[in-house]
Design goal:
Chain lengths: 319, 325
């Protein structure tokens, strides 16, 4: 990959990480309420998965969705405003952190039910097929989702109908406080998908952008060529708890430290400097750009306000 | 005027809407090759092909989710759940996704999904196959719920439901599939949210829907012999239900009996009765009577099961009670 491409990867990961850091700050100040799930640590999964997508491909995923939205090209101001519940948020403040959505970037939602978006991805694939388009659907979900009934229904149907879907399982190894060995009889989530649903599968180091994008590229191509769905199990780690309310006492400090050593952002910087001999100052410039974007996002959100209650009943039905 | 069965009227509506709009697709368990467990989708696969009419595995949650996603992707899906009883498996997708996604995403999605479901008891199918689930859908903001009583309405309202850009739960009563009624040639889409006065009367309003509309009409005949003039109002749409037509009727008759085949607790009759009290309380000469299905899972034994479902004599008794106040 070229230097400018890799610097863009670095920028994207910094932006995603930085956004989550700002969100945590704002949450602690009481500006963001409810459940708030941060993606910190998993950036390489999303950046890698999305890297080879076209603008017209559909992306759908879980409630840990701030990074999906931003990395798909969403405006961080509209995302922050949505988290603040304001009317100029991407969903007019009616969705909140877990339910970002924006047709303009073909990000079709964050969903709270862990595998609830999986059959919706099947439907999107069916529509693509019916309209004879060659776009694809990329669907993100976590390790916990692989035990819900509807996950199995959806994977089966997608394989049966050979739909253009890439299933990306973000295996950060915990569903809130329940680890994969404590919840999945078949600990290999890839094998679970492969045997039951006849899926081509890849298990990949989700902390490694290069590996992630390579595996995703193949899966996306397969879908686009009409060869049906694929499954990627991205082994990764969330540095924070499940949500802002979770102190994550179920993980020991040594384990967290092990995964922090594999932080995708310093790894990317090291890789770029190794291949292209880029000075630190250039990275610092990118970091400054990121902070400026985030400053603007927070300022935008702070300046907004909620929809008036007179508008409460809008958008329930198409009139 | 030609007569069609309720089943054939629905089939005709599907056929016409599929011919009219290539985005309409039909899918569900055994709807294509087998032509439907109740034969409602007979001939559709042959006419429209397997790209638009296809069978699914037994996966009700994914059937609904797929419809939701397909609608987002620009299609107009008309999935079938083989019976309303299997909707329980899909409830998260219906109530926690399809119904609320438009609102949750600030109006960014339009979900023109019509889910067809046959339901109702009375054929010794056992508790798990005999539910009337309308209440669960009517209770849910974001859905529309339709329940036709006649073949003409089945056709006109299914056409309207399919053309509606909102999620619609289209309920059919299994006991009505063979029921024949007049269906005008070229009958076009009806209007959702409109009740219909099927029989005019002056002494008591009998308000019903689905199979219970026929029970109400039977009761009205009996009441006429006793000198009681009953007006029969067929709700046709349960959400939103037509408060104007219902309360105008009650304002005229001053007495109301609401008939539902679902159990009474928080039922359709409870909702309609409350609406009547809210809007025309001063017109009432008696409390609103409710004639409901039994507050039970339905038993298998024939007589026991029939005792759980409203019949004309039950409605007559309730009407007399209203008249006696």
């Amino acid at each position: 990959m070229r230097k400018d491409e890799l610097m863009r990867v670095y920028f994207q990961m910094r932006l995603a990480r930085g956004f989550e850091t700002r969100v945590a700050e704002q949450y602690m100040k009481g500006r963001i309420g409810g459940f708030c799930h941060l993606y910190s640590g998993e950036e390489a999964v999303a950046v890698g998965a999305l890297w080879h997508l076209r603008k017209d491909d559909y992306v759908i995923g879980s409630y840990r969705d701030h990074a999906y939205y931003i990395l798909r090209g969403g405006d961080p101001r509209k995302a922050m405003a949505e988290l603040f519940g304001h009317s100029d948020g991407c969903c007019k403040g009616k969705g909140g952190s877990m339910h970002l959505f924006d047709w303009g970037i073909n990000f079709l939602g964050g969903y709270a039910i862990v595998a609830g978006m999986c059959p919706i991805a099947v439907g999107l694939g069916a529509a693509i097929r019916a309209k004879k388009e060659d776009r694809i659907v990329l669907c993100f979900f976590g390790d916990g989702a692989t035990n819900q009934g509807v996950y199995h229904e959806a994977l089966n149907m997608a394989s049966l109908y050979r739909l253009p879907i890439v299933w990306v399982c973000e295996n950060n190894q915990y569903a809130i406080g329940t680890s994969v060995p404590r919840s999945s009889a078949q600990e290999s989530l890839a094998r679970k998908a492969k045997t039951a649903y006849a899926l081509p599968v890849d298990v990949v180091d989700g902390m490694d952008f290069f590996k992630m994008q390579s595996v995703a590229e193949r899966a996306i191509q397969r879908a686009r060529e009409g060869k049906g769905p694929s499954f990627i199990e991205a082994k990764c780690y969330r540095y924070r708890g499940h949500s802002m309310s979770d102190p994550a006492t179920y993980r020991d400090a040594k384990e967290v430290e092990f995964w922090k050593q594999r932080d995708p952002i310093p790894r990317m910087k090291a890789a770029i400097q190794h291949d292209f001999d880029v000075p630190d100052a250039e990275f610092e410039e990118v970091d400054r750009q990121v902070q400026k974007i985030l400053d603007e996002a927070v300022a935008f959100a702070e300046a907004g306000q909620e929809l008036p209650t007179a508008r409460l009943y809008e958008d329930l039905y198409v009139e | 005027m030609p007569k069609l069965s309720y089943r054939d009227a629905i089939n005709q509506a599907l056929r016409e809407e599929m011919a009219r709009d290539e985005k309409v697709i039909v899918f569900g368990e055994d709807v294509a090759l087998y032509e439907g467990s109740f034969k409602v989708t007979r001939g559709l696969l042959k006419e429209f092909g397997e790209a638009r009419v296809f069978d699914t595995p037994i996966s009700e949650a994914a059937i609904v989710g797929m419809a939701t996603g397909a609608a987002m992707g620009g299609l107009r899906p008309v999935p079938e759940l083989m019976t309303v009883n299997f909707a329980f498996v899909a409830m998260d997708q219906i109530l926690n996704h399809l119904a609320l996604m438009r609102y949750m995403f600030g109006g960014q999605v339009t979900l023109p999904v019509t889910i067809r479901m046959p339901g109702g008891g009375g054929h010794q199918l056992g508790s798990q196959h005999s539910h009337s689930l309308e209440v669960h859908f009517v209770h849910t903001p974001g859905l529309k719920v339709v329940y036709p009583a006649t073949p003409a309405d089945a056709k006109a309202l299914l056409k309207a439901s399919i053309r509606d850009d909102n999620p619609v739960i289209f309920l059919e009563h299994e006991g009505l599939y063979n029921f024949e009624g007049e269906v005008p040639d070229g009958l076009d889409a009806g209007v959702l949210g409109q009740a219909l006065v099927r029989r005019e009367g002056t002494d008591v309003s009998l308000i019903a829907y689905g199979a219970m509309t026929h029970v109400a009409l039977g009761a009205a005949e009996q009441l006429a012999k006793e000198g009681i003039s009953a007006e029969v109002v067929d709700l046709r749409t349960l959400r939103p239900w037509d408060k104007d037509t219902v309360t105008t009727s009650v304002a005229t008759t001053h007495r109301a009996v609401v008939i539902e085949d679902c159990p009474p607790v928080c039922g359709i009759a409870a909702e309609v009765a409350t609406g009547i009290y809210d809007i025309v309380f001063d017109e009432l000469d008696a409390p609103v009577e409710r004639v409901s299905g039994a507050d039970l899972p339905l038993p298998y034994a024939r007589e026991l099961e029939q005792a759980c479902i409203p019949h004309a004599p039950d409605v007559v008794t309730a009407a007399r009670r209203a008249m006696s106040r």
